[in-house]
Amino acid sequence: MSGAASPTNLVRRALHSWVWVLPALGVIALVLTWNRELPTAVYLLVGAVLIGVVLAAVHHAEIVAHRVGEPFGSLVLAVAVTVIEVGLIITLMLGKASVDTSTLARDTAFAAVMITLNGILGISILIGSLKHETPRFNPEGAGGALAVVVTLTTLTLVIPSFTVSEPGARFSPAQLVFVAIASIVLYGAFVLLQTGRHRDFFLPVAKDGRIIDEDQHSDPPSTRTTIVSLGLLLVALVAVVGLAKAVSPGIENVVEAAGVPQSFVGVIVALVVLLPEGLAAAKAAARNRLQTSLNLGIGSAMASIGLTIPALAVASIWLPTPLTLGLGPVQIIEFLLTVAVATLTVVPGRATRLQGAVHLVLFAAFLFLATTP
């Protein structure tokens, strides 16, 4: 049997073809389920379609990003992921009136930080170290990205727990405006660094320390492919937001039936949004491209806060509940421990199995404490 017709290639072609079909399938599912009470089995089916459409949306955003080039490519991908995340959060916040959703934005943003800095990084480091002993990466690039994420998380999620202008762990309108602007400025500064003069800080590193610039030999997609992907991306984004509304009662009912806190809904949202980045990061680590894995993981955390919080700050004008962004004591301790461990991971510029194991244990602790506070 020839290589072109091998079972592996056939599976890859089938999966690739589904990426082009899923946005239309998502719209069909949206039309069939709009404003309807659904049985549990249908909720699960629609949820699976929702995850597939999210994967398809990110895939088409990557095609458009590759075509337009940097720095606009990074912005296209970040904006697409932000639209998905904000759409999911707002849809759930507009759900059941009997459920307090004021902390959903905080729970989702914090979950994104813990998933990326511990889950995605831990899995990537463990895969990379198991397959390639001690894979290398650029500490300047990873360290700079980590610094931005730590600053964004502290400004948006830690400080409101200590401010006194508003009751509870909330910002005053003026404080929320300042934090939103600061987040956009920091994210923009990082994009300029990553795509400008210090682009080499974020390129994969070989074992001998040589920088590997794979994009120099990567042909951009054709104009026709880009236009089709842009159209399917817009369709997928509409389907994601609509399907989120359809499955939101199911998500809330499952969380309630499982007896876990309502805040776990934010963890579910973050897991769905970050699934494509997690898969891509694991694949990059297996190819000895750990720097790419770090870029995907830490960059996803950055976009989840640096763009999502400002977008929700604007949306809060129309939302029925205020934004409670301040973390609780246990979450702050989890964050501080994650920062300390991530810093020690980044500084050497080399990854070991032990580092991967530590991050994964922290991730497991986060999930356990999210279900059993």
From TrEMBL:
Residue span(s) of domain Sodium/calcium exchanger membrane region: 41-195, 229-371
Pfam families attached to this UniProt entry: Na_Ca_ex (PF01699)
Molecular function via GO: potassium:proton antiporter activity; sodium:proton antiporter activity
Keyword set includes Nucleus: no
Membrane-spanning intervals of the chain: 15-34, 40-60, 72-94, 109-130, 142-162, 174-193, 226-244, 264-282, 294-319, 325-347, 354-371
GO cellular component, one term: plasma membrane
Keyword Flavoprotein among UniProt keywords: no
Location in or out of the cell: Membrane
Keywords: Membrane, Transmembrane, Transmembrane helix
Lipid bilayer topology: Multi-pass membrane protein
Protein name per UniProt: Ionic transporter y4hA
Organism of this sequence: Protaetiibacter intestinalis
Taxon lineage: Bacteria, Bacillati, Actinomycetota, Actinomycetes, Micrococcales
